[in-house]
Design goal:
By secondary structure, the protein is an alpha/beta fold. The chain has two domains: about 1-75 and about 95-140, Leucine Dehydrogenase, chain A, domain 1 (Rossmann fold, 3-Layer(aba) Sandwich), CATH 3.40.50.10860; about 160-359, Rossmann fold. About 45% of the residues lie in helices and about 20% in strands. The chain has helices at about 15-25, 65-85, 105-120, 135-145, 160-180, 195-210, 220-230, 280-290, 295-300, 305-310, 315-325, 325-340, 345-359; strands at about 1-5, 30-35, 40-45, 55-60, 90-100, 125-130, 190-195, 210-215, 235, 245-250, 265-270, 295. A six-stranded mixed sheet has the order 1-2-3-5-4-6, sandwiched between helices. A six-stranded parallel sheet has the order 9-8-7-10-11-12, sandwiched between helices. The chain is globular, with a radius of gyration of 20 Å. The structure holds nicotinamide-adenine-dinucleotide. It is an enzyme of class 1 (oxidoreductase).
Length: about 350
């Protein structure tokens, strides 16, 4: 275990995860291993100034533990920023359990993880993420109360995707009003990269609001599902950035806007669900120079976190929905500050989040 309370001397070793630990201004990093069970768990707690850290538990393979630690550190910092920009009384944390062939007993893994979470006394609250499911949260709940998204939660919809999609579409409306002076999405052309859980629902909602939609997906099954259930145009994965449109919505993986693609973007607005859409903050500056309004990813896609947080904070689904609709005001404020300062929207969002984390 390493703890950096900001008063201690800088950590001198140059191991990549330690540099990141310092640069991202951590925080806590906890590791737990059970060799017999094949368990290797990581819990990164970035910041608890605003409240206990909340973030999902990933259960996926990694090429080595260092990469898993780096993933957890980056993701937990992202959760701090997302909670702060959404004005939630929570900090940022994330956990990773390294998936490996050595693991024979899944139940044992999540029992061990539940004990691990419990040992931190509530500074970290866990939830579902890539590779984990409600049934895993149920096992964790047997060991600790610091878990959400389990079967005992009263929410009818356990899946955060519908509220994530609602938040993204609300953010698109704010962007369309600010940048195109359009009070609705009707008649706008919206291009969606990735029609998985969230992207499909965004397409559904945008269609409901009268937008024209074009989609792509690298998975033929997802594309077929969209074709069968929606009235959408289809393009290839390679064409997606350059299609002339009003809104480009990255809803697949991270890094959709990178040095290769940023100059191809032929949209007036970039607003989508994916995490880490920008390869670097420089991409946000280039988009601004091209007069493309970028809705910062962690502000527009906070609906999923709001959904999970509401369960933990014993709020109901109506309260969660009301909070998600506030994404409109959050983004409007970011857009206005970007106009008045000349900074990119991503820089403004970071400034707001950092101020709140230091408060
Ligand atoms: P998902 O896996 O259900 O959907 C992603 C889709 O993108 C898949 O259909 C996949 O085939 C497709 N895809 C992958 N690479 C692609 C490419 N290069 N081009 C086109 N399509 C590609 O995931 P999801 O839950 O819909 O999440 C989408 C994004 O939103 C992710 O970045 C996720 O981290 C982020 N996000 C999701 C939530 C949520 O509530 N699920 C919340 C916040 C952020």
């Amino acid at each position: 275990m390493m703890q950096n309370n900001n008063n201690t001397a800088p950590i001198s070793t140059k191991a990549p995860f330690l540099s990141l630990f310092e640069n991202l201004q951590y925080g806590e990093l906890h590791l737990k291993q059970d060799i017999q069970a094949g368990f290797f768990g990581i819990i990164a707690i970035h910041n608890t100034t605003r409240g206990p850290s909340l973030g999902g538990c990933r259960f996926i393979p990694y090429s080595d533990p260092q990469n898993a630690i780096i993933d957890a550190l980056k993701l937990a910092q992202g959760m701090s920023y997302k909670a702060a920009i959404s004005d939630l009384p929570l900090g940022g944390g994330k956990s990773v359990i390294i998936h490996s062939e050595k693991i024979k007993d899944r139940r044992k893994i999540f029992e061990l993880f539940g004990d691990f979470v419990e040992s931190l006394g509530g500074r970290y609250i866990t939830a579902e993420d890539s590779g984990t499911h409600v049934t895993d949260m149920d096992i964790i709940f047997e060991k600790t109360a610091y878990v959400t998204g389990h079967s005992n939660i009263a929410f009818a919809t356990k899946d955060p995707s519908p509220l994530t999609a609602l938040g993204v579409v609300t953010g698109m409306q704010a962007a369309a009003q600010h940048h195109l002076q359009r009070s609705s999405l009707a008649g706008l052309h919206i291009v969606i990269q990735g029609v998985g859980n969230v992207g499909f629902r965004i397409a559904q909602l945008c269609q409901h609001y009268g937008a024209k939609i074009t989609v792509c997906d690298s998975n033929p099954k997802a594309l077929q599902h969209a074709k069968e259930h929606l009235n959408v145009g289809i393009c290839t994965v390679d064409q997606i950035h350059s299609i002339p449109c009003d809104i480009f919505a990255p809803c697949a993986l991270g890094n959709a806007i990178n040095t290769q693609t940023v100059h191809k973007v032929n949209a007036k607005i970039v607003a989508g669900a994916a995490n880490n859409q920008l390869e670097s903050i420089e991409m946000a500056r280039i988009l601004k120079e091209k007069d493309i309004l970028y809705a910062p990813d962690y502000a527009i896609n906070a609906g999923g976190l709001i959904h999970v947080a509401a369960q933990y904070l014993h709020q109901d689904e109506t309260q969660a929905r009301e909070k998600v609709l506030k994404i409109y005001d959050t983004l409007q404020s970011i857009f206005i500050q970007s106009d008045t300062t000349g900074l990119s929207t991503a820089e403004i969002a970071n400034q707001i989040a950092e101020q709140r984390l230091q408060a």
